[in-house]
Amino acid sequence: MAQSKPMMKKRKKERDPKRIIAPLVVLVILYVGLEIFLRVFQVPAYVLPTPTNIIIGTVSSFSIILPDLLFTLKIICIGFCIAIPAGILLAALFSQFNILVKAMQPVVIWLVITPMITLIPLMTLWLGTDPNLRVIIVIIQATPIICLNTLNGFTRVEQEKLELARSVGATKLQTFVSIIFMNALPQVFTGIKLGCIFSTIGAVSADFVSRGMGLGDRIIKFTKYSNFEESYGCIILIAIIGITLYTIVVCSGRSKGGEPLCRHLRSNLTM
Fold first, then answer.
1. Does residue 43 belong to any structural domain of this protein?
2. Fewer beta carbons within 10 Å, N or C terminal of the chain?
3. pLDDT tens digits for range 102-146
4. What is the CATH number of the domain that holds 248?
């Protein structure tokens, strides 16, 4: 079957090299502009080191930073991988009972908007500084946003589709999988993408409070000894981790043809 012209234009746009080149050009301009500005106005390193000095400091200390980088990355990945099924399963449970939706939605929203760093000191007091605590913090940080977006998708299915499923004798499980879940896939993927970002925030926040290991703890140690270039380098590495994981999630949400995976699945898995 021939593809429609709008779809072909959309795919061509998604593969446009400008989508990659444009951010790189912006980064180069930002790099050069900051370098010139900071050197001309002689901005102190404790305020903001030059990009070149940040790179030099980070590379020279990378053997020190690497264990903390791997530790934080491990915490993010473990917590995020647990948060995805946890958020989806909770949303599936809540969506089956209207009273649960009304009762739990404010709680989930409260967990989403509450900065996790405000709860970490209490959790550290209760559970100690075990590395597993950081995984729990990441799960608590990421699960609500995944659950909230998924729940919004589960509760916004057209009633006509549900009635049609019942009329042909579909079971509750069949209706949920083939109609409710499939229609909610865009919201599910949105929740997962946001969960990836929240996981990074949660892991680094835990590093700052729990201490011992991690990029957050390494930033505190570098700053304590006035190694500002290395501190900013760690901040940039945190940003790179978040962007990389987000990009992986976005790419995994696309089919081989470049079409969003949620749309591809819905078109192939209909009743």
1. no
2. N
3. 888 888 888 888 877 777 777 777 766 677 788 988 999 999 999
4. 1.10.3720.10
